[in-house]
Amino acid sequence: MEDWQEGEIVDNKKWTNNLASLFIKADIKPHQAGQFTRLGLIINNHFVSRSYSYASAPNDDLLEIIYIGIPDGIFSSKLLELKKGDKISLMRKAIGYFTLDEIPNGKNLWMLATGTALGVFLSILKTESPWNRFEKIILIHGVRRSEELIYENLIENLKNGHPKQLIYFSCVTRSGNKKHFNYRIPQGLKLKDFERSSKIKINNDSQFMICGNPEMIKDTTEVLRVMGLQKNRRVKPGNITVERYWV
Length: 247
Ligand code: NAP
Known about the structure:
The two termini are 23 Å apart.
């Protein structure tokens, strides 16, 4: 049985008309960076809940979730309406295994995200562990339009804090702009553009964490398999660890 706790909305920051970050105050057990929770609301007299990864680090004062309003989505359209002081249910204990504890050692850590999945990597990057464990971290965010490249200030701060370690690339697929790669993430891997631009070779010393659009995960995993990397499983450690955001 899920154990629910009531939280209070502190802010519902809109990045675009359907992309937002929810800040929640709640007395729950601290999560591990990379884990997710379920949010719950009463909608038409029924309790409805959905899973969301934490974008906040375990030590942050407020819990933070990035979400997108899905057209006709009964839950996410209600999230967009929430305002300061409103109440929301969330799980007392976070769940999930997309955490650094599950990632084998390696030289470089590649973090590949589309859309709102960026949040799970921000949570991890706000902790000490990735910087202590990996020489270089390559964060790649793929979005449809450049206005969806959110948290640029936070990423800039992380780069300033770890200038020799963090490399950030953006892929924008539906609005051309020379500042970004203008194709999907698997294409950049296939063309070896990310390796060339980062001056980092992808090999058995590379660990990949991939989160976001299920088709992106499938296509990216396939490209990496062709490059000789294997899925990471508890029984058979490998280089590719994935988290599906929706099915
Ligand atoms: P998205 O469709 O996931 O696109 C984000 C980026 O991923 C785009 O650059 C897109 O490229 C790329 N992409 C799509 N398929 C790919 C593939 N097979 N390989 C590599 N890259 C791929 O867009 P979004 O704005 O984050 O979300 C849009 C819709 O996703 C929402 O309206 C909703 O339906 C769904 N969604 C659902 C949930 C959920 O929890 N249920 C959460 C987030 C999003 P292209 O522009 O070339 O397609």
